[in-house]
Amino acid sequence: MDLNNVMTISRHAIRKHYLLQIALIIAIWKMGELIAHASTLPIPGSVIGMTLLLVMLRCKLIALPSVKRGADVFLAEMLLFFVPAVLAVLDHPEFLGWLGLKLLIAILLGTVIVMTCTALTMELLFRLSNHKAGKHVME
User: CA-to-CA distance for 4 and 63, rounded, in angstroms?
Assistant: First the structure.
């Protein structure tokens, strides 16, 4: 059995089993953690790992089907990642009163402002790119 056969079998196994995909995502995340620790960069290892995964996907070192189902599992179980935040609210009941309402308003208002600025920036860039290309958008 040569290296090509082993790689092909491995690729098919990873694409079929979401647990192997999760293991692959975790392995890349762990590589990011190791890089962050070894380089003493002020960037979290998880960000480095996911950037590494993005680069691998863009360079076609890893095919999207090799991580899609595993990533979908993580997204489907996203609520589990927020359980500590819920427990923090239970430890601080003052967040359930006026202070919590003020924080909620600040968060919602900040989110709306960021989304609005992003939408306006994207619209402006879209119009500029169309104008440069010679296509005038009729309103």
Answer: 16
